[in-house]
Amino acid sequence: MEDIVLDREYKSSLRCLKIGDKVAELPIIQGGMGVGVSRSSLAGAVAAEGGVGVISTAQIGYDEAGFEKDQAGCNLKAIRKHIWMAREIAKGKGLVGVNIMVALKHYKEHVKEAVECGADVIISGAGLPMNLPELVPEFCRTKIAPIVSSKRAANLILKMWAHRYNRTADLIVVEGPEAGGHLGFSRDQLAHRDEMDFDQEIRDIIACKKEYEEKFGREIPVVVAGGIFDRKDIDHAMALGADGVQIASRFVATKECDADERYKQAYVNARKEDVQIIQSPVGMPGRALCNPFMKLVENGRIPVKKCYNCLEKCNPGQVPYCITKALIDAVEGDVENGLMFCGANVGRIDKITSVHELMRELAEG
């Protein structure tokens, strides 16, 4: 491995992460977390440490004036604002990317806005981003990265992109069953995840993408996400052949995280047994903290009083609760009555630290 000496008082034996013509000094991507958990403060701080800071566009404008009446406009305004602010914080270091869910009602608009604002990379999941290449010009500065959880999904996307657009991915994020938020697995798979050989799935995806590397004459780095907690996990992912990792939950418990302090403290206080698998209004299973809100949902539907136009496939009269309201309530500090997504290892988090200290720990081991 090549040694990279950083100007942040620590060094790492980790290789840099190359995404096309872009380079992050550390192969660590901070996972995108909405609503409002990862915006410019967190993403900018991670980029400033040489990593890839990621802004989630899911209802990113929830605190903009006029959001109650114009969610779409406020979200686009906030995308522009937070990409610019993250770049200011990063001061030319690392990369600033965005996470845009396929399930969003205004998915295309979010992608186009991120491209116009010069996002370094768009990471897209919660569905298969089949038309992402047509929204992102091939020779613009923005790179494209699908999130997949299986070789089948990876091959389907790469094959479709090659056939329809003569294009391939600039990066692939492989998200495992230990991840937080929306998950690309069935509830049965998640219930028996200890029986899964996901290491082999990662190896299979790495083998699958080689065909497209040869076809397009470029490298397609693979980043492993889900359950990555410390340097031991990073080294394990690298040993499988990965080029980097994506970590989300640990970045919540940082001073720079954009969520309310009560949200961060809920992560610190969480125990392993507080984590549960839920059915999200997005239509996918998700992993979240058990709290009074989730117990209320289990006992029956919470009527939706207002639609915030967030999801493409959402019937306010049928969904179990409004995911936008639940996520906004939580990020603003009402941790008893809001939805708090988390990773499987949240119970191991025992303190709030800084992004600098966390990145140093991950880099040095």
Automatic annotation (TrEMBL):
One Pfam family here: NMO
Quote one Gene Ontology molecular function term.
monooxygenase activity
Q: What is the lineage of its organism?
A: Bacteria, Bacillati, Bacillota, Clostridia, Lachnospirales
Q: Which UniProt keywords apply?
A: Flavoprotein, FMN, Monooxygenase, Oxidoreductase
Per the entry, what this protein does is: Nitronate monooxygenase that uses molecular oxygen to catalyze the oxidative denitrification of alkyl nitronates. Acts on propionate 3-nitronate (P3N), the presumed physiological substrate. Probably functions in the detoxification of P3N, a metabolic poison produced by plants and fungi as a defense mechanism.
Xref: InterPro entries = Aldolase_TIM, NMO
Task: Please give the SUPFAM superfamilies that the UniProt record associates with this protein.
Answer: Inosine monophosphate dehydrogenase (IMPDH) (SSF51412)
* Protein name per the record: Probable nitronate monooxygenase
Q: Which PANTHER family match?
A: 2-NITROPROPANE DIOXYGENASE (PTHR32332)
- Tell me the organism: Blautia faecis
